[in-house]
Design brief:
Elements: E1 3-7, H1 18-27, E2 32-35, H2 44-53, E3 57-68, E4 73-80, H3 87-113, H4 120-126, H5 135-144, H6 154-160, E5 173-174, H7 175-184, E6 188-191, H8 194-197, H9 203-209, E7 213-217, H10 223-236, E8 239-242
Parallel strand pairs: 1-2, 2-3, 3-5, 6-7, 7-8
Antiparallel strand pairs: 3-4, 4-6
Helix pairs in contact: 4-5
């Protein structure tokens, strides 16, 4: 078995649609594919059916954009194998999606007001499957208009980070509430890439809320992250997962589906 449990499609901020994502996974020898679009569970039933057609087991998932108010840090919670009606997850995530769309509209208007030649209709077309505009869609239009040549360029950081023209965060879900929502829908709750934003101090509180595991394998994790994650796994009896965090052409690296995979000994919990 070869499981990549962290993959995004164009239903959120990936560039490939579900069919092409599954075909690419198949070509890379992936047998178990975790589709975890940001803050939405749309399209998972269709993805599972397509996976059966192409002989790839699609594991339904979500990546919830959350926040630890004590640490004052963003934190992402992955959910897997929940009830596909996802009532609790939807209730938690719908305000996030609404806020993201409003913020993206604000960002597009600011860019136009400050002289950037961009076409809102082109951006909306890129986001037609997600139905929500992400920063990657705006950057793709800026690339098309030749302001830069890749998404995570100096332009991205100057526009969207710190005091940039388009900077400004939306309100995310409370991290413990994200865990509880996944558990309420019968799913497995996993802390995503803790080494990326250094949120190890959140683990005890998240375990108390029902956390099932931690993502071990991720492009942002080094040997020290692996040591810390394994120590937490042993202390709290957690599952370990992993994946490529694939976003297609919207990704920050050249890592492909299947380049990073989950530890096989834990796959029985996700199959």
């Amino acid at each position: 078995m070869k499981a990549d449990l962290h993959v995004h499609t164009d239903i959120s901020d990936g560039s490939f649609d579900t069919v092409d994502t599954i075909k690419l996974a198949k070509s890379q020898g992936v047998t178990h594919l975790g589709i975890v679009n940001h803050d939405t569970i749309r399209g998972l039933k269709e993805a599972m059916a397509l996976g059966q057609k192409h002989k790839v087991q699609v594991i339904p998932g979500v990546e919830i954009s959350a926040y630890d108010h004590k640490l004052k840090k963003k934190i992402h919670i992955l959910g897997y194998n929940f009830d596909l009606e996802g009532k609790a997850i939807k209730r938690l995530c719908e305000p996030i999606l609404e806020a993201r769309q409003q913020n993206a509209t604000r960002q597009i208007n600011l860019l136009i007001q400050h002289g950037y030649t961009i076409d809102p209709k082109a951006i909306f077309k890129l986001a037609q499957n997600s139905m929500i505009i992400y920063k990657q869609h705006i950057m793709a239009e800026l690339i098309r208009q030749q302001y830069t040549d890749n998404i995570y360029s100096e332009l991205y950081y100057s526009l969207f980070k710190n005091d940039g023209l388009c900077a400004g965060e939306i309100s995310y879900a409370d991290a413990a509430d994200a865990v509880r929502a996944i558990k309420a829908d019968g799913g497995l709750a996993i802390l995503a890439h803790p080494g990326q934003s250094q949120v190890y101090e959140s683990v005890a509180e998240l375990v108390a809320a029902g956390l099932d595991g931690i993502e071990l394998i991720h492009e942002c994790h080094n040997d020290e992250d692996h040591r810390r994650i394994k120590a937490l796994q042993q202390k709290h009896g957690l599952l370990l997962t992993g994946g490529s965090d694939f976003h297609g052409e919207y990704g920050s690296t050249s890592i492909k589906i299947g380049d990073l995979t989950a530890p096989e000994e834990f796959l029985r919990y996700f199959a």
